[in-house]
Specification:
The complex is a heterodimer. By secondary structure, chain A is mainly alpha-helical. Chain A has helices at 2-7, 33-52, 62-107, 123-144, 147-153, 163-211, 221-259. Residues 1-10 of chain B have low confidence and may be disordered. The chains are: A mainly alpha, B mainly alpha.
Chain lengths: 263, 187
């Protein structure tokens, strides 16, 4: 972008989400910067999960308290509280994976040097949403058989002519809208987070390092943009955790709705 | 400067259309972390939680046992204390009775001794009285005869009649006195 470079102001573009391929070019596993960030997150997550749980003690030390707090939060407050003890244990691995994978990938959006969330490209959110979709349908059939479809599409206690109206709506909301909203909510939160954060950084850089050295006092606006950037960074941290929670929680809720005997 | 439309048109991808590598790496991410959770993390976590609840249950049991033991000891102690109280009461009662019995015995002994001494004294007094009576009687007889001899100028001491008279007189006197004595005694 020669024009932008000359002016000193490089606003973020959609191209940020599609960087150049750096490894395995031309193969299905072609890696760009975002894919590398994903691999890095997986490696870090794996190291934490492996060593964090390697020798768990009855009386925990500081590190173990932290690890246990996070694991037990998902275990108790998302899985078991939503699904009950038995179903909660059955679907625990998936829900745990949803939460910690999403959390780890979201957090890279605020890590200096990485600056883009692993979930800011549609592939991962879509894969997770499809898995959640397949799982709740499977859970419903596993528990109730074809009764599940009947329950989901034909709400009990409704006069039958209304089914002409309600059944298509139920079909749409349960089996089509759910995976789309799961994907979009996560993806767009991360995309907008990246764009806004990158915009604030670019603006700060432009005001403080291009305008101010030229003696232009408008450069002092940069102080404000830096302050806003710090606040927004904290907000993005919160959003990263919140979106991970929402994704895992909704997955649990969808499974719970599918295995419930009655709506 | 680019407009957004130009940027979108120029960009290498569409935000809403996933590329094959994107999907593949997304799937790999999920599978790796899921496998780690199933293979290691959750078994470890569940083992820890189970062990912890067992430990807590064990400690609760231990505390329960200790409390039961303490209660048993306390009860035994109280029983022993009650037994000791009863025993002490019994001993005290026994001592009191013993004391009473000893006192009664002593009193009886003292009474018997006193009676014996009194009786002895009575006997002695009686014996002395008898001897005094006997000596007094012969003395009085002799005095009477001497007096009579003096009066009639003759020696009557050898006269059997005179002696017999005096004796009879004295015997009468004696009789009267014993009668008086009897009345005073019965009174």
């Amino acid at each position: 972008m020669p024009v932008a470079a000359a002016s000193g102001f490089e606003p973020p573009t959609i191209a940020d989400f599609f960087p150049d391929v750096v490894l395995f070019a031309g193969t299905p596993f072609a890696m760009n910067r975002v894919m590398l960030i994903r691999v890095l997150v997986i490696v870090l997550l794996a190291i934490w999960l492996w060593f964090g749980t390697r020798s768990l003690k009855l009386v925990p030390g500081r590190g173990q308290v932290m690890t246990e707090f996070l694991l037990n939060f998902v275990r108790n407050n998302i899985a078991i509280e939503t699904l009950g003890e038995e179903d909660g244990r059955r679907w625990m691995p998936v829900i745990m994976t949803m939460f910690f994978l999403t959390l780890g990938m979201n957090l890279t959006g605020v890590v200096p040097g990485l600056q883009i969330a692993g979930t800011a490209v549609i592939g991962l959110p879509l894969v997770l949403a499809i898995i959640a979709w397949v799982l709740f349908i499977y859970a419903g059939f596993r528990k109730l058989g074809w009764t599940y479809l009947k329950n989901a599409l034909f709400l009990p206690g409704v006069p039958w002519p209304l089914y002409f109206l309600l059944t298509p709506l139920e079909l749409l909301s349960t089996f089509i809208v759910r995976p789309i909203t799961l994907t979009m909510r996560l993806l767009m939160n991360m995309v907008s987070g990246h764009l806004l954060l990158a915009l604030v950084y670019a603006a700060s850089s432009f005001f403080l390092f291009t305008l101010l050295p030229q003696g232009n006092l408008f450069g002092l606006i940069g102080v404000g943009t830096v302050a806003f950037g710090i606040v927004y960074l904290a907000f993005e941290l919160f959003v990263a955790a919140l979106q991970a929670y929402v994704f895992a929680f909704l997955t649990a809720i969808y499974i719970q709705l599918a295995v419930a005997e009655e709506h | 400067m680019h407009t957004a439309a130009v940027v979108l048109a120029e960009s290498k991808g569409n935000l809403l259309i996933p590329s094959i590598p994107d999907l593949l790496w997304g799937t790999v991410s999920f599978v790796v972390i899921l496998a780690l959770f199933i293979w290691r993390v959750l078994p470890r976590l569940n083992a820890l939680l189970d062990e912890r609840s067992r430990a807590i249950a064990g400690r609760i049991d231990e505390a329960k046992h200790a409390r039961e033991e303490a209660e048993r000891v306390l009860q035994r102690y109280q029983e022993q204390l009650a037994e000791a109280r009863v025993e002490a009461g019994r001993i005290r009662e026994q001592a009191r009775e013993d004391g009473k019995r000893i006192l009664v015995e002593l009193r009886e002994q003292a009474q018997a001794e006193a009676d014996r001494v009194t009786a002895q004294a009575h006997q002695q007094i009686e014996a002395e009285r008898q001897s005094a009576l006997v000596s007094l009687r012969s003395e009085v007889g002799r005095l009477a005869l001497d007096l009579a001899s003096g009066v009639i100028g003759e020696h009557l001491a050898d006269d059997k009649n005179a002696t017999a008279l005096v004796d009879r007189f004295l015997a009468d006197l004696d009789l009267d006195r014993t009668g008086e004595q009897d009345t005073t005694r019965t009174r």
